[in-house]
Amino acid sequence: APVSSEKLVGVVGLEIHAQISSNSKLFSGSPVCFSAPPNSQVSFFDASLPGTLPVLNRRCVEAAVMTGLALNCTINKKSLFDRKHYFYADLPAGYQITQQRRPVAVDGVLTYSFLGGKKRSQVVRKHVQIKQIQLEQDSGKSLHDDVHSQTLIDLNRAGVGLMELVMEPDMSCGEEAAAAVRELQLILQALGTCQGNMSEGQLRVDANVSVHRPGEPLGVRTEVKNINSIRYLARAIDYEIQRQIGVMQRGGTVHNETRAYDSKSGETIPMRDKEGLQDYRFMPEPNLPPLIVFEDNATLPPGVDSSQVVVVQKIKEGLPELPSVKREHLVQAYGILPEHSFTLVNEEGLMEYFEEVMKATRKEPRKVIGWVMNELLGQLKQQDMSVSQSPISPAALAELLELQETGRVSSSGAKQVFQVMWGSSGKTAEQVIQEQDLGLVSDATQLHNICQKVVDSHPTEVHAIRNGNAKVLNKLMGLVQRELRGKADPVLVMEILKQKTRGGGC
Amino acid sequence: MSAFRLTGLCSCRGVSLKVIESSCNLSRNRRGCLQRPLLNGTRLFSSHSLNSKVPRVPTWEQIPEEQLPPPAVVPADLVDKLERLALVDFRTKEGLACLEKAIRFADQLHLVDTSGVEPMDSVLEDRALYLRNDTETEGDSAEELLKLAKNTVEEYFVAPPGNIPLPKREERTAMLKHSEF
Prior knowledge:
heterodimer; A: 506 residues; alpha+beta; nine-stranded mixed beta sheet; three-stranded antiparallel beta sheet; 36% helix; B: 181 residues; mainly alpha; two-stranded antiparallel ribbon; 3 strands; 4% strand; transferase (chain B); EC 6.3.5.- (chain B)
């Protein structure tokens, strides 16, 4: 067969574990809470003491169905629970209850976007297939104490409900994976089924990475773990793709292994040496009958207690507004560009900030967007701050914009005011304008006098303007501004100058 | 916490004669060949007429070897792998013989015609799965649970640094030579 001359490209599939936002665990009534004292949220079942049995939490089923519906999945009316066996100190039972054979939701699609194109201003839309969403138990936490050669086990997390989302390998690079995860995060947060905080372990992402030439069969894949943020996700994937390409180009072979991402070095390093392929000996969970969810009220068996059933129709009707719909609404309501509404929804808190400003100013939305995207977001990004940390509140920004609208300050002046406000905590726009003497002069008489002075002292220029060279007006404008130390209202000055330099039979 | 309650037949002894008679009449409608219960006051056992589902004489027939598929061979590697996965020792002659007999016994299932029958993995399959409300009802058992462990450090359970690898087959055989098995 002819050797393909095409370049090697990456193939990325993601396995995501989302911790279900609920009051109690998946199969027991222990509380679910971040950062509680060790082993203070563990029931006898969680510790897998003999004689205990799992009891399914209805909220977790609803969360899985809700998430499945938001991702356009088919909800399996009947799904089954299985045991996945492996030994580790943080898995007290020696097995995890999961849904390997028939999960609660299958065959969905996640539509995500990112800003691409030459100037990163075009919204690029992509899809990734969701193979399935299954309910499963989380394991406890292990803290490795190398000094004393021991591992400390905290079972608070053992038994917490997880939704495992398996995505097909439809992505090709770190940027796509990061954008997909970001969109999923926004969806889960909008649904309230998962808070999606990666650094707190509420959303855990493992990447399956391989390389191949387009059209040829998929290459050997490696699993990359220990990724704690969306930024690291992109970096880890891109590093791994490059590493594998390097191996292939040197004539080597990629090994099917698990690698951990090291954020300090930016590299992936091989993880635990598994003795051959793990055999989880899946078996049906004997203590749990099949999970049945009903399509609508019409299909309910007669006389059944409403707290004992999950009805898909009801959940569908209760779905909140998803991010993609939110973006559309912003474009419609404010007439802003899709890439701007994308950024507004994507940046935590930015949309709320924008809408607060819009409430308090008459400025048109497109101009406000300019301020929010460039001045505000630019500064925040530069200093690696979040919207909630902005020293300028929406009300303060709105006040500044109003002052610019009413001609109290020029647009370049306003930008200066913004910078000063940023550095000083809590000073209002008006205060800064006064302190820095940036207020525009719009006194008509004063302007007329100065313009007249400039016109009278520059006959050559006036002559050029009268002959059709309008650009020279800018020179005169510059002279007027110099007289007024830059505080002339440029719109007014231009009008007056045009008036005064009109020649011929006017 | 139990998801369901098993309501089995009570295997109590010395039940009143009235109950025996009525249940006997019921079963007589279904199977004609039931003996009259012993009325002379001897103790009754659950395997007797109270429980009509248990046949009075064995009903299975010995299946001739030719009808069964060839006996499964359990190679040493597989035994090794199973011991590793399940952390169970069964590599003595008796242990292996027991395993092979058990597999042979299960081989009889191959003779059952299951075409058109959905696989069943639990007799609970037509029970309703109980759904619990999402409330905190337990979990405050740190003291009791930690007391069960020999070794704890500041409210944490203590485990070895990682999974202790199972010794190789040869080493294990040497270790077991001196054990009671």
